[in-house]
Design a protein that fits this description.
The chain is 28% helix and 21% strand. It is of the alpha/beta class. The chain folds into two domains: 7-125 and 327-349, NAD(P)-binding Rossmann-like Domain (Rossmann fold, 3-Layer(aba) Sandwich); 127-312 and 361-377, Dihydrodipicolinate Reductase, domain 2, CATH 3.30.360. The strands form two sheets. It has a nine-stranded mixed beta sheet, covered by helices on one side. A six-stranded parallel beta sheet has the order 3-2-1-4-5-6, with helices on both faces. Strand 5 (93-96), helix 5 and strand 6 (121-123) form a beta-alpha-beta unit. Helix 7 (176-184) crosses helix 11. It is globular and about 65 Å long. The two termini are 30 Å apart. The structure holds nicotinamide-adenine-dinucleotide. Residues 12-16, 36-39, 59, 74-77, 79, 97-98, 126, 163, 320, 324, 327 line the site of nicotinamide-adenine-dinucleotide.
Amino acid sequence: MSANQPVRVAIIGLGFGAEFIPIYQNYPGVEMYAICRRDQKGLDEAGDKYGIPARYTDYHELLKDPKIDAVHINSPIPDHGWMSVAALKAGKHVACTVPMGTSVEECRAIVEAQRASGKVYMMMETVVYSREYLYVKELYDKGVLGRLQFLRGSHMQDMDGWPSYWPGLPPMWYATHCVSPCLAILSEPGKPALAESVVCHGSGKIRDDLVRHYGSPFAIESATFKIKGSDVVAEVTRSLFDTARQYRESFDAYGSKASFEWQLAEHQKPLIHTKSSEAHPIPEPEIAKETEVPDYARLLPEGIQRFTMPAAIQDAEHLSFLQGGGHGGSHPHLVNAFLQAVQGKKPAFPDAPTSANWTMVGICAHESAMKGGDRVTIPNF
Ligand SMILES: NC(=O)c1ccc[n+]([C@@H]2O[C@H](COP(=O)([O-])OP(=O)(O)OC[C@H]3O[C@@H](n4cnc5c(N)ncnc54)[C@H](O)[C@@H]3O)[C@@H](O)[C@H]2O)c1
């Protein structure tokens, strides 16, 4: 691929994955070249709708296509690991939806394959490119929050009725949405904050017909994890089945000067709590104030700015988009970050070792819960 040639992208998996097609199509210097799904009819429908020339029902055949520079994987969770490794070994850049994998071994294999190939690997974590996260990060970087004292994430979702790989999934195997903001906010360019150990408790019990799939009995898993080189501890909570709760993917950041707290229910607004002091006393009722979260489309190339808004998303009816609150307008930011990494303008964030760390917090948390809350050290690659 020379500097003047377009980056040719292939998207694998066209459920959630289809939401990204028009974003790549509107990105300068990119050719949205190929798509892949197993079902020929669905493949052709998407190919005709978006005018995409190269179509594959077999992923291995797609990887043999020398024209493809980069793959964006949106397949079912059990396929993320092997598909990422195969693509890196075939010399392709890889963007993959969350989680990176479902075991420490899979994460390790991807990090090793990425290093051996020298290609880009980026886990496409929506939360750290959502407008809410970008807002809190901006407040922290500008000093508004002061010193960070504690971080909390939660992701509660009712997955009854979702595809076959979801029933009974250990909640913490899909924890990156609540883990990632806690680590990203403490990261600096080239110096990612990494989790070093985790303690997790499992609570309650899901239906027996769900437990048999993965042998994971808990309705809720709740973990605290230590961050390397920091005195800040983060807490994350996950549920997937048999718990009554509206969808919530939240992030709270408690600082010495101000704190950000996610809204309790959709259609409410988040709160900023400001510390009262002798010099600047604040009456108790005014300590907590609702805040308006701005959009960050201005950070993007003009052609894809509109995709931060749900109205511009082609497949805004997809369940993940509806339940996920539009993922905070993150999709075009993710595409931009990945392509900037492929074009050598900026390192991927999260890169392979960071993606592994974010994913393994959850994997090790589930291990801890299964051991009754023993502390588990997170492997360091
Ligand atoms: N906020 C987020 O980051 C977010 C939101 C939604 C979904 N996701 C992730 O995206 C992935 C897909 O979710 P979904 O709801 O679209 O799932 P889905 O099961 O509806 O769709 C999966 C797609 O992958 C294709 N596929 C399956 N196996 C394949 C194979 N071997 N080769 C080629 N294609 C194959 C299917 O044909 C289908 O198009 C999941 O892993 C999920 O975790 C992430």
